[in-house]
Amino acid sequence: MEALSKNLEEWYGASNAALQKIAIDGYYGDFAGSVILDVGNGGLSAEQQLGPGLAGKVARFIGADKSHDMLYRHGGHEKILCDAVEIPLADNSVDYCLLNNVIHHFGFRREDGFGTVASKAIRECLRVARRGLVIVEMTVPGWVQQLERAVVGVTGGMATFVFNAETLRGLLQDSGAVEVKKFRGVRLGELVGNWTPYRGMITVPLKVPAGLIPYTYVFCEVAKGSR
Prior knowledge:
This protein is of the alpha/beta class. Helix content is 35%, strand content 26%. The N and C termini lie far apart (39 Å).
């Protein structure tokens, strides 16, 4: 777990500050006074996820994760050990669900069908959120998604599956949300600098210029609707 935590901090550290600034400036504006459920929390406190200025203004911050080790690796905030497709909270019991780079961790198993688990998790988050979702998620070009699907066709599944931005938008629009708003993509190279050495995969120590890595981070708000 210590090794994984170190890898996570090293891999995400270069881009997290830039991602957080975009999210705080453009997407977390209504979080003050709200109850926030951070899905796929990974043990991060409100200060780490929302920044110290906003963290003290939310009414309540709850971290949810299905991994006990990740959820309890640090942070003394309120926590719920659960799967994103079955959150043990009542309908409309929080104001917002925050999904910060978690959707690709839902994975894809051939037997489940393409996008099925991600769709279930999105719908479950909309069930418990009174106002909707705020999402930050890495995406890849269509050709990379096709390669991933080919791998699933041979191996039967991938524990981590990164969607194309338009595929992600489609999953969100099909979730029953009223509106997918402020859908914006920012390339990794724009976040950290095209020539900044960066690890393309958390399990691969090799670093290459960030501009060569085909990740685009998508930001959006998903308004709550009737389903």
